[in-house]
Structures are given as structure tokens and as C-alpha cells.
Write a structure and sequence with these properties.
Elements lengths: L1 H13 L4 E3 L5 E3 L4 H4 L5 H21 L5 H23 L12 H12 L73 E4 L16 H5 L25 H8 L2 E4 L3 H5 L1 H12 L3 H14 L4 H18 L2 H16 L5 H17 L3 H14 L4 H13 L3 H14 L4 H13 L3 H14 L7 H13 L5 H10 L22 E2 L1 H4 L2 H9 L1 H14 L5 E2 L5 E3 L2 E8 L2 E2 L8 H7 L3 H4 L5 E7 L3 E6 L6 E9 L5 E5 L2 E3 L6 E4 L5 E5 L5 E9 L5 H6 L4
Antiparallel strand pairs: 1-2, 3-4, 5-15, 6-8, 7-11, 8-9, 8-10, 10-17, 11-16, 12-15, 12-17, 13-14, 13-16
Helix pairs in contact: 9-10, 9-11, 10-11, 11-12, 12-13, 13-14, 14-15, 15-16, 16-17, 17-18, 18-19, 19-20
Length: 678
């Protein structure tokens, strides 16, 4: 009590009011007028009140649209653009490259003038080859009576299937969006990088077989560079030319109308580059509506449609892009560089969709406008080949070689055509020199294949040196296994046993019913020998070889089964053969004195069974790699015809066998359903 009393006495003595006890246990100093003004609040309390007022004010402004943000942003954008135009007008006097504005290139020139002596040294730039876009994918091969060696027959590329459009998506999550070759920078010019010395694929040209044959999902690691072969037909570019080719080339794409709206074009182009394709399309579409005679605006719209087509896997959008490229090229006042870029891309995308005749017409127009461009003529030749017009392609390449006799691309394709015409010896120097040139578009498995095949047929052992080189380049699985339409990772061996294939039931059925199958085939030979069509794939050195096909590419061939109903009924029970889209079921009759050149089948996705029906002895034999075997009546031989094989028929009578192709046993059910037919 004494302490409390002293405390109160002390407070009164100091003249300070006693602290006030609140209900929450805290104490506050009481001062003069405390009883009148009520409790005092801390600074923190006022800060909380002000913050809450700010939050609710912001909510109210946003919710009730008190401020028109769109208008504010539009004003800001207008100010920025107007300021940019004014600034460009101020700097127009420093336009050194003549493109109508002041940009980075002008600044570089000015800096060089101020930092270097006045003596000018002219720089020379070698002309740059145009870069091409992606090529089309492997598609179905048209049927023929014998597809045992589609590639060896030197037929042109199969037409593309326009029912599927599955390009690579450059905007997949996690991957940076890559600008396609020949993209437009913000200065309104096309910047082209020089092409690498050896390009695996060229648009408007044949895909390399490494692209066509890689049907497995995993990417193959890059192959080691082989030792160069002795050069006989051409030389590599000099170092100075390579340095010049490495420089970028600016192409003028803007005409007067385009320059007047350059800032708007640049803004839309930046949206496209960043992957904002929907917004970019609206921007370019608005420019086209406001300035219908602007080629650059219409070309930009076509590019965005092209990008969206890849992103959405849309054939309709791609066709729209093709149409818009054509519109851009038709506008008056279009620059020659934009005309070339638009029509070339149009031709590429037409080929991608399988519109081969349209692509040919586009390329022909390009050649008419640019008659001295050898690269465009080469592309035109490929377009003829894609249509199966070897005669037209041959004429084009003869014209190219007349003005550019060392052009490797023209040489290798011209040799390819000569080989298809069975001018074997004449084709060899063109194929060899074209491959030795190392020019883009020449490193193709088919050219290695046909050069080796031609050398074999004239008895030149250097064929296997070229096969080895093709193997080192990644086109062939091995020197022996030279098929081009492959699935990676499948077991590869020339000869198989029924147990290894897993098709023992099929083999057992064939061997048990071989006489029934034989008798039906003989009956057809007696009453309608015309069903046995001659082999037309240019595989025979001499002799006669006929075939009667029942199934091809997984489908029955017309009314063929009417002649051999029992055989077809037996085969229907085995979908591994009747459903083999990369094989055939057929009878094969070979007359005495026949020799079949060494050759390989087109794919590693099948195995081939031979059932002996009529086998005269001795003299009938087949070699696969370095192993030779003979047929027996009623017995099945199984081999992988993607390996090199050769046949001799030196008996006194005809040889008759039943050929049954089956899926490679390691292919999954999904692969069997989705692989394209051959």
C-alpha cells in the first residue's frame, strides 16, 4: 500500500497525469482534455484506414468503368507512333541505304564514316542461294504389279498425300519459336543466311533418304563425316567465296506504299515473331483492308496464315496462305525480291499439300520472271519429276547444264533420269560427279543407290565403295541392307527360320497345302497365261519373269482371287500377310536362262517367304548377301529382301514359286496400322 501511495504522490509531484487502464490491459497516458476528446489512435491505424480507402477506390474505378483504360492506352500508343514518325522525319536526312528511313544499317554506315579514313574500299558480296522450307513427308507409293524394288527402278518420288497435314510445330511448349528461313526483320527486308555446305533436305527438291527412311520416332544421332572421294567432276568453292557466302544478304521487300506504313508493318511482324499469331493476323488483315495495294502487308498476312496452319495442323489455313502468297505476288509495284520470296514459298507449300501441278505452274512463272536463276530451274526440274514427267525434267536439266556444266544438283538428277531410261553406262559419270560435288541437294540415298547399282551392272567393283559411303552418310543400314523406307531398331538378318519369325502356323499351312496352291496356279497358267504379267522393274539382265499378284499393299488386286479361290481362302486366315501394307502375295514364274540383277527391296518392315511349287533341278538358286540357297518343292524359304539378293534360273524348265510377304515380327500393332503402304 505504501508503494502505491508513493507512486501516486510521485505522479502528482511530477505534474503528469496518471496512466489510464483499458479493458484490454494496455495503458495509455491521460492528458489535458482526455475526458473530452476520447481515446487517441496510433499512426499504424491511420495507415490501415488510408490503404483500405485506396483499395476500395481502385475496385470502384475498375468495376464501374470510371476510367476508360482502352482510350488511355490508345492515346499512349498514338503518341508513341506519332513521336516515332516525327523522329524518323528528323533523321531522314541520315538515310544512307535508301530504304526510306533511318535504321540500324544507316547507323552502322554513319559510324564507319566517322571512325574510318575517307578512303572507301568497296565490298563484294557473292550472290546468296535462296533458302527453302521443309519438305514433304513420306507418303503412299502408287501400286504396281511388282513393288519388290520400287527404288531400284529409278521411278520419281511418289505424290504427296494431301489428306494428311502434319508439319512440325515450331511453337511447342518448352521450345523457342524458330523463325523460318527467309524471315522478315523489323527493317522491312528479308535477311537470308547462307546455306550450309551440305544440306540434308531442300524444299522443292527431293528429300534426302535420311529424312525419308527415318520412320522411327527417335532421332538418329549425326553421322561422322566420311573421307572425301577423289574429285573428278567439280571443285569445292574457294575460301573467299565461302566467306562471302557467310554474309547476310538484305533483300528489298518494301515499295513506296509499304514504306508509308512501315511502322505498322513492323509492329505486326513483331507480333508474328513472338508467336502472337491470332493478334498478328488481325493486324495484318487490318493493314490489307486499309492498304489493299500493299504487297508487304499481304505477304505478312500469308506468313501468319502459314504459321497458324503449322500450329493448328490445318490444310484449310495452309491453302489460304497459298492463295495469299499468290495475291501478294500479283499486286502492282511488287518488288522483285518480294515476288521471288512469295512465289517460292507458295510453290513449297503447294508441294507440301500434294498440289504438284499447281507447284509446277508457280515455279514455271518464277523461271519466266527470273530466267537466269539456275536454282529456280533446278526446282522446276524436280517439280516435273514429282509429276512423273521425266521427259520434261530431262529438258530442264539439259538447259541448266548447257549454261552451268558443273552444277552438281543438275548432274545428279540428270544421271538419275538417264538411269531410269536404262542408259546405265551414260548415267554413271553424271551420278558420280554430282555426288562428288557435295552441293546442297545431292546427298540423297537414292543417288548413292543408283550409282552403285549402275556400277554393278557394268561389272565395276567400286559399287560397294559407294554403298559404303552411303552407309557412312546414314542412308543405308549397312552395305548389304540398302532399303530406304525403314523403321529403326528392327532385327536385321538376311535369312530367317519359321521359329524366329513367330509365323509357324502360316508356314505349316503353306507347306501342308502346297499342292493345292500349285494346282490352282498351273490351271491359271494353262487357261489364262495373260494373268502372269512380265516384270517391269528393270531387274533382269536377261530372260523372262512373270508374276500373278493376289494382294498388294494390304488389299486384294481386282478379281485375281477368282482364278485361285482355294489359295485365297487359305490366305484369308492370316492377316499378318493379307494385311501387310508393305508387301505382296503373288505367284512368280521364271523361265530358263533368266538372271536377276543384285538388288534390294524398298523397306525393312517385311520378311519374304518363298514356297517352292515347281522347282526343276539343278540350276535354280537365290543368293542373299553372301549365302546362296536353292528352293525345294513344298518347302518355305524365308529371307529379308531389304538385303541384297540375286537370282539365277539355269534349269531346263520353268520355276514356279508362291511369294508371301509378312510384317516384320518386331513391328507393333500400332506401327502396322499407321505405316504408309509400299
Amino acid at each position: 500500500m505504501a508503494q502505491k501511495k508513493n507512486s501516486k504522490t510521485h505522479n502528482k509531484r511530477d505534474g503528469r497525469p496518471a496512466p489510464v487502464e483499458h479493458k484490454n490491459g494496455k495503458r495509455a497516458e491521460a492528458g489535458p482534455g482526455a475526458a473530452d476528446s476520447g481515446p487517441r489512435f496510433s499512426m499504424f491505424t491511420w495507415l490501415v484506414v488510408v490503404a483500405l480507402l485506396g483499395v476500395w477506390s481502385s475496385v470502384a474505378v475498375f468495376y464501374f468503368d470510371i476510367v476508360d483504360y482502352d482510350r488511355v492506352l490508345a492515346r499512349a500508343q498514338e503518341f508513341r507512333m506519332n513521336f516515332s514518325e516525327v523522329l524518323q522525319g528528323k533523321l531522314a536526312a541520315y538515310d544512307t541505304d535508301g530504304d526510306g528511313d533511318f535504321d540500324v544499317e544507316d547507323a552502322k554506315v554513319l559510324l564507319e564514316k566517322t571512325s574510318k579514313p575517307e578512303v572507301e574500299t568497296p565490298t563484294q558480296r557473292a550472290p546468296e542461294p535462296e533458302e527453302d522450307g521443309p519438305a514433304a513427308e513420306e507418303t503412299s507409293v502408287p501400286g504396281s504389279q511388282d513393288v519388290e524394288s520400287e527404288i531400284q527402278a529409278a521411278v520419281p518420288l511418289p505424290p504427296l498425300d494431301d489428306s494428311h497435314f502434319v508439319p512440325d510445330d515450331p511453337t511447342e511448349p518448352g521450345e523457342r519459336y524458330e523463325e523460318e528461313p527467309g524471315s522478315i526483320d523489323t527493317t522491312g527486308v528479308l535477311v537470308e543466311e547462307s546455306q550450309p555446305e551440305e544440306t540434308e533436305g531442300e524444299s522443292g527438291r527431293y528429300q534426302t533418304s535420311s529424312t525419308l527412311s527415318a520412320e522411327a520416332e527417335a532421332e538418329e544421332p549425326p553421322k561422322a563425316e566420311p573421307e572425301p572421294e577423289p574429285r573428278t567432276g567439280s571443285t569445292q568453292p574457294t575460301g573467299s567465296r565461302q566467306e562471302a557466302d557467310a554474309k547476310k544478304k538484305k533483300l528489298k521487300l518494301l515499295n513506296k506504299i509499304d514504306k508509308s506504313i512501315k511502322s505498322e508493318i513492323d509492329a505486326a511482324e513483331r507480333l508474328r515473331r513472338k508467336g502472337n499469331l491470332d493478334v498478328a493476323l488481325k493486324a495484318f488483315d487490318s493493314l490489307v483492308q486499309q492498304h489493299p495495294l500493299s504487297p508487304r502487308a499481304r505477304y505478312g498476312k500469308a506468313q501468319v496464315q502459314d504459321d497458324l496452319a503449322e500450329k493448328l495442323r490445318s490444310n484449310d489455313l495452309l491453302q489460304s496462305a497459298i492463295n495469299t502468297y499468290g495475291e501478294a505476288a500479283e499486286l502492282p509495284g511488287v518488288t522483285s525480291d518480294l515476288l521471288r520470296a512469295a512465289l517460292r514459298r507458295r510453290a513449297e507449300r503447294q508441294q507440301f499439300l500434294g498440289r504438284m501441278r499447281g507447284s509446277l505452274a508457280t515455279l514455271q512463272k518464277l523461271v519466266d520472271v527470273f530466267p537466269d536463276d539456275v536454282g529456280l530451274r533446278n526446282d522446276l526440274g524436280v517439280a516435273h519429276l514429282l509429276l512423273g514427267d521425266n521427259k520434261g525434267a530431262k529438258k530442264v536439266y539439259e538447259e541448266v547444264l548447257a549454261v552451268a556444266p558443273s552444277n552438281g544438283f543438275a548432274k545428279v538428277h540428270y544421271g538419275f533420269i538417264l538411269k531410269a531410261e536404262n542408259k546405265i553406262a551414260e548415267s554413271i559419270p553424271y551420278l558420280r560427279e554430282g555426288l562428288e560435288s557435295g552441293e546442297p541437294g545431292t546427298d540423297d540415298g537414292r543417288f548413292y543407290f543408283h550409282l552403285g547399282d549402275a556400277l554393278q551392272r557394268v561389272g565395276d567393283d567400286s559399287a560397294y565403295r559407294w554403298y559404303e559411303r552411303g552407309h557412312q552418310r546414314g542412308h543405308f543400314a549397312s552395305v548389304w541392307q540398302r532399303s530406304l523406307y525403314n523403321v529403326e531398331g528392327l532385327k536385321a538378318q538376311p535369312w530367317w527360320t519359321p521359329q524366329e519369325t513367330g509365323y509357324t502356323d502360316l508356314v505349316r499351312m503353306l507347306e501342308r497345302n502346297w499342292k493345292t496352291i500349285r494346282d490352282e496356279a498351273l490351271a491359271v497358267m494353262d487357261r489364262s497365261r495373260g494373268r502372269f504379267l512380265p516384270e517391269e522393274e528393270n531387274l533382269r539382265e536377261k530372260g523372262e519373269w512373270g508374276q500373278y499378284t493376289l494382294w498388294q499393299q494390304g488389299k486384294r488386286v481386282g478379281s485375281a482371287c477368282q482364278g485361285v479361290p482355294k489359295t485365297c481362302a487359305l490366305m484369308e486366315r492370316f492377316p499378318e500377310t493379307t494385311g501387310c501394307k508393305r508387301g505382296q502375295i503373288k505367284f512368280s514364274v521364271m523361265q530358263p536362262g533368266t538372271h536377276v540383277w543384285p538388288h534390294t527391296g524398298p523397306t525393312n518392315c517385311r520378311l519374304r517367304m518363298h514356297l517352292g511349287l515347281v522347282i526343276p533341278a539343278p540350276g535354280c538358286r537365290i543368293r542373299c548377301t553372301n549365302q546362296t540357297r536353292e528352293w525345294e518343292e513344298g518347302k518355305v524359304l524365308i529371307f529379308d529382301d531389304s538385303f541384297e539378293h540375286e537370282v539365277w534360273q539355269e534349269a531346263d524348265g520353268y520355276r514356279l514359286i508362291f511369294i508371301v510377304d509378312v510384317w516384320h515380327p518386331e513391328l507393333s500393332q500400332y506401327q502396322r496400322q499407321t505405316l504408309s503402304p509400299i
